[in-house]
Amino acid sequence: MTIDMGGRFIATVLPLMVPLVVLIALLQTLVAAFARSYREAQTHLGLLQLIPMIPSAMLCFLSNKQQLWMFAVPLVSQQLTILRLLRGERITLLQGTLSVATTLLVVALVFHVA
After folding, report:
1. Is the pTM of this model over 0.85?
2. Which member of 47, 62, 77, 109 lies 3.0 to 4.6 Å from 71 by CB, making a disulfide possible if both were Cys?
């Protein structure tokens, strides 16, 4: 098995990951803003770092059949996209658009709260 992480891979993954990076930064800002002390913020941010492990664990227990709704869940959609690309499979425009759109929707909600 060969893994091709060339220009096509990067050109596909980068636009899908940018909204996720913004979401994570906003979540960290939100947690820090509502913390009462530096120590409390540090504790909550440590727990926040565990959240990205949930999709990995969830995908291990679910069947390998990927469904369209999975591409509407931030973190899960990015993980599925990367896994599909590493296997040499293609993602459809609908899957990519759904991933970016739902992540941007959650970004807007978190931004509003923060």
Report:
1. no
2. 77
